[in-house]
Amino acid sequence: MKISWGGLDNFPHPLYNAGMKNETYVTDRVALPKIGLGTFRIGPEDCERTVSAALQGGYRLIDTANVYMNERAVGRGVRNSGVPREEIFIASKIWPTEYKYKKAKKAIDATLSRLGLGTLDLLILHQPFGRVDEAWRAAEEAVKAGKVKLLGVSNFDEDDLEKLLTYCTVKPVLDQVECHPYCQRRALSAYLKEKEILLESWYPLGSGSAGLFAEQTISALAEKYKKSPAQVILRWHTEEGFLPIPGTKDPAHAAENMDIFDFSFTEEELSALRALDKNQRFFKMRKGVQKYMVFLQRMNYERQK
């Protein structure tokens, strides 16, 4: 079975050109910015303003989802930014309640309509529950139809990906999971590297954990490099080959989060940061309970402003 990376041949994109500064390479054909802006829990008004300011400040990857109820706001923020659409990488996700084949096809089209940005750079399946196979078939058809460029997944473990890789013909380029110095996902990270799939980090700052920010290792590095604890943590992500998508509705924080490419750690410093790992997740719901709760969350996505 031939597996492709998606519709790159049909969609020339500056972010796919080798040699650009501050990129993370997934394969020899797919490149993504090394940091993005997450929009989880950001209301429409704040989201529109923050997306526009972030793009004007140099961000080029924006992450949203139908369940975030801010896709329309992301679209407005992109259009208001003045940054050419072809320079921007937009990712959105569909929720498992939309995974049945016909519903997934409609959900993909609805996301495209709410964003109002033409094609979608990356379509992600938000959770590994329900009819993943049917949703993936609909997603692959969206790639072939020229609606979507690349596909990805979120919150998939190794066993979830193993199942997907047995039948997919368009390979996921990334897996978006909780990852930060307290939860470094070492086994999953090794698996993803073997499969040439990028690890994208949500909660990259440990959900703003005061304990994480106050860690002596992080504080010492922040003082040495004249950076904030958040900048130290985000730089750790990029040096580990992860793609962090910190969320904020404060444009000043967004600008600070991106200012991480003028320093790098020694191997000794990286080892000290790796030693902080204690497999502590801030989203603590067990997978079985999470699966049950996912299907209780049914929303009218068209009500978003």
Describe the secondary structure blueprint for this structure.
Blueprint: E1 23-25, E2 31-33, E3 37-38, H1 44-56, E4 61-63, H2 71-81, E5 89-94, H3 101-115, E6 120-125, H4 132-144, E7 148-154, H5 158-167, E8 174-178, H6 186-194, E9 198-202, H7 210-213, H8 216-225, H9 229-239, E10 243-244, H10 251-258, H11 267-274, H12 287-294
Parallel strand pairs: 3-4, 4-5, 5-6, 6-7, 7-8, 8-9, 9-10
Antiparallel strand pairs: 1-2
Helix pairs in contact: 1-2, 3-4, 8-9
Please characterize this protein's 3D structure.
The chain is globular. It has helices spanning 44-56, 71-81, 101-115, 132-144, 158-167, 186-194, 210-213, 216-225, 229-239, 251-258, 267-274, 287-294, and strands spanning 23-25, 31-33, 37-38, 61-63, 89-94, 120-125, 148-154, 174-178, 198-202, 243-244. The chain starts with 22 loop residues before the first strand and ends in an 11-residue tail after the last helix. An 8-stranded parallel sheet has the order 3-4-5-6-7-8-9-10. It has a two-stranded antiparallel sheet with strand order 1-2. Mean pLDDT is 91; it is low at 10-21. Helix 3 packs across helix 4 (132-144). Helix 3 links the parallel strand 5 and strand 6. The chain has one domain (14-210, 240-249, 278-294): TIM Barrel, CATH 3.20.20.100. The protein has 305 residues and is of the alpha/beta class.
